[in-house]
Amino acid sequence: MHKGCLSMSLPPLSAIRVFEAVTRHLSFTRAGEELGMTQAAVSYQIKLLEERVGAPLFLRKPRQIALSEVGSNLAPQVQQAFEIMREAFADTRGEVDGLLSITTVPTFASQWMAQNLGLFQIDHPEIAVRLDSTSDMVDLLNDEFDIGIRTLAAPPEKGLVSHLLVKADFTPLLSPALAESIGGVKEPADLLKLPMLDPQDEWWALWFEVAGVPGFSAEGRPMSMLNWQSLLGTAAMAGRGVTMLTPALFRDEIASGRLIQPFKLLAPAGRAYYLVYPESRRNAPKIKMFRDWMLEATAFMRAES
User: Fold this and answer.
1) Measured between alpha carbons, how far is 44 from 38 in angstroms, rounded to an integer?
2) Distance CA 132, CA 305 (A)
3) Which residues belong to any copy of the HTH lysR-type domain (predicted)?
4) Could you tell me the pLDDT band of residue 200, with boundaries at 50, 70 and 90?
5) Residue 170: strand pairing partners
6) Is 57 left (phi over 0), alpha (psi -120 to 50) or beta?
7) Do 278 and 161 meet the contact criterion of CB atoms below 8 Å apart?
8) Do 90 and 19 have their domain in common?
9) In this predicted model, what pLDDT tens digit does every residue of 98-123 receive, in sequence order?
10) pTM for this structure?
11) Are both 136 and 185 inside the same structural domain?
12) pLDDT tens for each residue of 36-77
């Protein structure tokens, strides 16, 4: 038989859906309420299906209906088919709701998410997390990710909700050994005696300006372009130079003494790390769980900044 004939043998799905609802309620009115249809619309769909089948599916009695013999034979199989579809969509929904996809900038991924994300999964073992680290700006409105961690200087595009995690304000950090190589760093100008990582970075000039040290220039200093704070922090811990970092993201390294922060002075970066997600999904359970956990887990960083 030609495939087109097979497709023609199946009545319209809308009529089958109405039939399935009526067989459960044995009422055109209640079936219509469930489906958001008028009683007349339900009757019309059943009439179409009966014409297609060639026999009555229901016996119309005063104030009630009953399945005809043909309807009684058809109803269990139709109900079973719809139940299979309901279970399939429920399972799919469960898989979707149980997987949280996060895209994050590399520095936040390595300096905070890697150390702390496991705590979220301990609290919510029913949710699997997929973490993607990228410097690309992912389109959260149209891509597959649920949540993004972004560095922003202004509110995100329309349709997105953002929550401040921590400001990206910065200060010099270096290894204790490097500081001791010049007898300690006692004032901001002492940093000029040391090798600097990424000296062409605008953060150097900005910080020295706030610190009241005029005339900083990267001229004559060896150029490097590590760019990412995570890489700069690793190089600084190895004693390769002093670097500008966001200290809130290097608390463990500072607490353990692998890095030292010689001055409390922070220069404003003009941007911050934000938790971002589509406004249309703000009430999705997995997003609410992660948002609430994340804001609580990072509250100390906002209090210190």
Assistant:
1) 10
2) 27
3) 11-68
4) very high
5) 267
6) alpha
7) yes
8) yes
9) 889 999 999 999 999 999 999 999 99
10) 0.67
11) no
12) 889 999 999 999 999 998 999 999 888 889 999 999 999 888
Q: Do 15 and 81 share a domain, yes or no?
A: yes
- Rounded to an integer, what distance in angstroms lies between the CA atom of residue 174 and that of residue 60? 87
Q: Are residues 164 and 280 in the same domain?
A: yes
Selection from 301, 305, 257 nearest residue 116 by Cα: 301
Hey, what are 240's tokens?
Answer: 């390769």
Is 83 a residue whose pLDDT tops 80? no
- How many domains in the chain? 3
Q: Domain limits at 38?
A: 3-96
Amino acid at 253: E
**What is the residue-wise DSSP string for 104-146?**
E-HHHIIIIIHHHHHHHHHH-TT-EEEEEE-SS---TTTSS-S
Asked if residue 162 is part of any domain, the answer here is yes
Mean pLDDT (the chain) is 88
Determine which helix (DSSP H) or strand (DSSP E) holds 245, and give its type and residue range.
strand 243-245
Considering the domain architecture, whether residues 161 and 277 belong to the same structural domain is answered as yes
Q: Which two tokens stand for residue 44?
A: 């019309």
| pLDDT above 60 for 1 | no
Tell which of 55, 81, 96 closes a domain. 96
Q: Is 34 helix (H, G, I), strand (E, B) or coil?
A: helix
Q: How far apart are CA 228 and CA 232, in angstroms?
A: 6
**Residue 153 and residue 223 share a domain:** no
Q: pLDDT: is 154 or 129 the higher one?
A: 129
Which tokens belong to 163? 């929550």
Q: Which of 96, 117, 149 is the last residue of a domain?
A: 96
